[in-house]
Each structure stands twice: as C-alpha cells, then as structure tokens.
Amino acid sequence: MVNELLDAIDRASANLTKLEGVWARAQPSLPTGPALGTTPEYEDLQRTWMDLLGGLPPVDGWTITAPLPDMNELGQTYLDYADIGELPTSAWEAAEQPGRDLQDRTATRTATGSVTRFRVEPGLRRSARTSAGAAEHLRLMGDGSASVDP
User: Where do the record's region annotations for Disordered lie (predicted)?
Assistant: First the structure.
C-alpha cells in the first residue's frame, strides 16, 4: 500500500513539473494588450494543460481546475478596457492566474495563515514512508494516473 501511495505521489509530482513547463511555454504567448486571435501552438498547450490536470489529486481538498486563459478572450478584454479608458485589471488577473495556481499547489498554509513554501508531494512522500495514514492518503489522492508529455 505504501508503494502504491509513493507511485501516486511520483506521478502527481511529475505532472506538476510538466504543468510548470507548459505554463513557462504558454505565458509568453498571452497578449499584454489589445489583440485578437490565437495560435495552434498555444491551443496545443491549452489541451496539454487540461490533460495534465487530471493527474493532480487534491491536496488539502484543493487542486488546480482552471484552464489556461483563452488568448482571444484575453485580447478582447484588453480591447474592451481600452474602449472605456480603464486599467485592464481583470485581464491582468486572468493572465496571472495559472502561475498563482501553480504557486498555491506548491505551498501549504500554517495554522496562522502564513504560507510555507515547499513541494507538497515530497512532503507527502516522507509521511507515507512512516506508513501511518498511508491508506487515507491513497484514498484522497485517487490513482493520479494521468500523465501527459507536453
């Protein structure tokens, strides 16, 4: 049972690393001002992102579920803000959300609400080796079987 949990953690960690790679490639493609359209490469990254999300089990009841921003919708949002003469705050937030989600995935909150940075999966891996609660960890993680090469 512990080996199954460790395998699930390894798959989840690999998928998280792949998601970080997808985001690193996708982020520079996002518009930073008024623009319309998308690219086939970005659409491929969007599909890969969604495929990889299936391999991320919830940690403390939370996991990433949001797709990458739609380039065309984001560019249109910038156009809309330009038309009304306001700062495009919602466009900025939408463009930054995947990065924030990835940061949240690799952080844990302490009892006081402060954030302690570390990779969650290696922490679970260490606790699984004790075998205490391994069955519960495995049940909460599901099988974590989705793994896609970006």
Answer: 125-150
